[in-house]
Amino acid sequence: MSVTIKDIAKIANKTPSTVSRVLSNAGGYSSKTEKEIKRIAEDLGYNKNLAAEELVKQHGKVIGVMMMDATTNFSGDIINGIEKQVTEEGFSAIWVHAGYQDAERQKKALALLFERRVSGIIIISLTLEESNFIYLKNMNIPYIYLSVNPKNNAPFIASNDFQMAYKGTQYLINKGHQKIAFTGIDFDEKNIGSERIKGYQQALQDYNIKGYKKWIIEGDYSYESGYVSAKNKLTKMNVSATLAASDEIALGVINGLSLVDISIPKDFSVMSIDGTSISQMYRPRLHCVRQDFFNIGFEGAKALINTISNYKPLKSSYIPFSLIEGETIKHI
After folding, report:
1. Torsion, CA 192, CA 195, CA 199, CA 200, rounded to 10
2. Which of 66, 100, 187, 290 is most buried by a 10 A CB count?
3. In the chain, at which residue ranges do the beta strands (DSSP E only) sit?
4. Where would I find the HTH lacI-type domain in this sequence (predicted)?
């Protein structure tokens, strides 16, 4: 729970109005009272809601957006969705980068947004380290995660990672494949990665297919990771297909296998998760589970702005995904 002025007032045995005056440096209190209240506020990790103050004084309409990497092949669609909604509602956005699983950069990004007095925060494809999540909550402004379910009761809008992996694996099974690898998953990523592994494993189990731990190949969702996995792992496995953790992984796998004259889909089948624009630019076109990244961005910004403007509570939701047939799966 976020720390409030009432919480501080209760511990200090002062009225909320006195606490508010102290934290606003408004005067009308003793130095002893000031020191006591500020000490309690610091001990509780209280952060004054400058965004709310900005809204009252200047009708501030700025949201902060924390993101991992602007060069990821799906981030552009999410950004476009956010920008469309932000522009339509007369808001503006401040964009900050927080690295990949980098707790220190996350902290600096949050501090910057707090200093800039944003009215709310969107977090794209990031899972905050625990102390940073506590810091976020204590900022006392609304926030929402996009493209990830952080599993900490925080509001989010995303695709269902379990279901995407399940449906992708199920599609391969229905095409006759029994020996299916899963390539490119980051084992250290506790939300997206773990849910996709569970979905993949559940599909195998539901169809009475024995899966092997070695069939799940670690990676980082990048082209290079898929390329290396194809050369060093897939070529040494007795599998006929792989579910790829991203489009970039899928393309890396296809090109890596081509080096040893394994043709797609004649000799090996590939199903990717994401369905970004590159999935249809490449030949052969990828079979893929397509996420609606634009709508994730649009609906996320819409929900946050509605909370800022109308005090509506934020609710989590999954955006529907779709299966797109391409040219990388053979029916055996």
Report:
1. 60
2. 66
3. 62-67, 92-97, 120-124, 143-146, 156-158, 180-185, 216-218, 241-244, 269-274, 287-290, 317-318, 322-324
4. 3-57
Q: Are residues 154 and 165 in the same domain?
A: no
Q: Which two tokens stand for residue 69?
A: 């990497």
Note whether 269 and 172 are within 8 A (CB): yes
Question: What are residue 289's DSSP bridge partners?
Answer: 273, 323
Same domain, 271 and 205: yes
Instruction: Answer yes or no: do 227 and 131 share one domain.
Output: no
Residue type, 78: I
For residue 298, the enclosing domain spans: 61-158+293-319
Residues 21 and 141 in one domain: no
Total domains present in the chain: 3
Q: Are 49 and 11 in contact (CB under 8 A)?
A: no
**303 shares a domain with 267:** no
Model confidence at 117, pLDDT cuts 50, 70, 90, reads confident
Q: Look up residue 301 and give its amino acid.
A: A
Place of tokens 């006195």: 18
- Cα–Cα distance between 228 and 252 in angstroms, integer? 8
| Lookup: tokens for 293 | 């990244």
Beta bridge partners of 270: 242
Is the domain of 95 the same as that of 76? yes
Overall average pLDDT of the 163-186 stretch:
97
pLDDT of residue 263: 96
* Phi and psi angles of residue 147, each rounded to the nearest 5 degrees, phi first: 65, 20
Number of other residues whose CB lies within 10 A of the CB of residue 74: 24
How far separated are the first and last CA of the chain, in Å rounded?
54
* Same domain? 176 vs 287: yes
Give residue for tokens 């969705």: 81
- Number of Cβ atoms within 10 Å of the Cβ of 23: 16
